[in-house]
Design a protein that fits this description.
About 5% of the residues are buried. The longest helix is centred in the N-terminal third of the chain and has 25 residues. The protein has 3 domains: about 80 residues, Up-down Bundle (Four Helix Bundle (Hemerythrin (Met), subunit A)), CATH 1.20.120; about 45 residues, no CATH class; about 35 residues. By secondary structure, it is an all-alpha fold. The chain is built from 10 helices and no strands.
Length: about 220
C-alpha cells in the first residue's frame, strides 16, 4: 500500500467517524465541531483526487466562513436539547429510510464506476506533443472557462451578490424609532460639561423647633 492509499483510508475513516458524531452528539457545539472536521477530511480527499480547486473552496468558504458563523450562532443560542430530542424516535423510521436510500444510491454509483471519464494527466497527455504529459490544473481550466465562455453569468452572479450585500448593510443601518442606540459621532464629540453639571446648593439648615404654644397631647384617662 502506497502513501496515497494510506492517506485515502485515513481521511475516509476520520470523515465517517466525524459524520457519525455530527448526528449522534448531544451537544450542538460538539456536532458543529465534528462537522468542521468532516469538511476538512473531505477537502483532503479532494486533494487526493486532484480537485484542488474544490478542496480550497471547501476550506475557505465552509470552514473559514459558513461553519464559523454556525459555531457562533449555536454558542450564542440557548438551545433546549431535551426538547429537541423528544420527537427523535417518532421521526426515526422516515430518517432511516431516506438515509438508506441515499446510501444505496451512493453504493450503486461507486460500484458501477465513473465511465467515460479520464484522469487529467491522461487528457493532458493526449493533447501533448509527442505523447509527453504536460502539467494540468483544473483550477486553471475552470478559471479560463469562467472568464471566457461563462463571463456573462459570472458577472451577473457578482452583481446579484453585491446587491444582496448592500441590502444587508442597508437593513442593519436602518434607524428604528423604538431603538435607544446613540450615534457614535455624538459619543465622540461629547464633552465633560455635557455629562456632569455642578449645582450650588444652600448649606444645611437646622430644622425649626416646634412652637411652644402647640397643643399638648391629651392625657390618658
Amino acid at each position: 500500500m502506497d502513501a496515497k492509499t494510506g492517506f485515502f483510508y485515513l481521511f475516509s475513516v476520520v470523515l465517517l467517524f466525524a459524520a457519525f458524531r455530527v448526528i449522534t452528539a448531544r451537544n450542538p457545539v460538539h456536532a458543529v465541531l465534528n462537522l468542521m472536521l468532516a469538511f476538512s477530511q473531505a477537502s483532503g480527499l479532494w486533494f487526493l483526487l486532484k480537485a484542488e480547486f474544490l478542496a480550497i473552496v471547501l476550506v475557505l468558504v465552509y470552514l473559514g466562513a459558513v461553519m464559523v458563523l454556525f459555531l457562533f450562532v449555536v454558542m450564542m443560542l440557548d438551545i433546549d436539547t431535551s426538547g429537541v430530542r423528544k420527537g427523535f424516535w417518532k421521526h426515526f423510521p422516515l430518517a432511516a429510510g431516506i438515509g438508506g436510500l441515499i446510501a444505496a444510491e451512493m453504493t450503486i454509483v461507486l460500484m458501477s464506476g465513473f465511465r467515460g471519464m479520464e484522469e487529467p494527466k491522461a487528457m493532458a497527455a493526449a493533447i501533448g506533443a509527442a505523447g509527453q504529459a504536460v502539467p494540468f490544473s483544473n483550477a486553471k481550466a475552470l478559471g479560463e472557462l469562467m472568464y471566457t465562455q461563462y463571463l456573462l453569468p459570472v458577472e451577473v452572479a457578482a452583481v446579484i451578490l453585491l446587491v444582496g450585500m448592500v441590502a444587508a448593510i442597508a437593513l442593519t443601518l436602518r434607524q428604528r424609532k423604538d431603538s435607544k442606540a446613540i450615534s457614535p459621532s455624538v459619543q465622540v464629540r461629547v464633552r465633560a460639561q455635557d455629562r456632569m453639571r455642578v449645582v450650588k446648593l444652600a448649606p444645611t439648615v437646622q430644622a425649626p423647633e416646634p412652637a411652644a404654644d402647640a397643643a399638648a397631647p391629651e392625657s390618658k384617662a
